[in-house]
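Researcher: Re-running this chain for the archive, since the previous output was lost when a drive failed. Same request as before.
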Amino acid sequence: MITLEQTAHLAHLARLELTPAEITELSGQLGAILDYMAQLQNLDLADVPPTAHAVNTANVLRPDQPVPSTLTEKLLEIAPAPEDHFFQVPQILREG
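Model: Regenerated structure tokens:
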């Protein structure tokens, strides 16, 4: 269990300004976290292989390959003021 003084010290190190009520609440929460961590440390994990993720996952994305697109031409056809292969838009930044 973590004491109120230890919780206040941790809050000070973290540059947190806590009221006495907040320190009491946080002390209980930190105590519960530390108790749970102690339970995890007591588990026998000798036969459990190390993993990077809790479940096995596979990349479900397709390979990234460039393909020709006619979307640009269709968009430029309906643009109000196309110029070459670009959209012409009003200037929004001013110099000086």
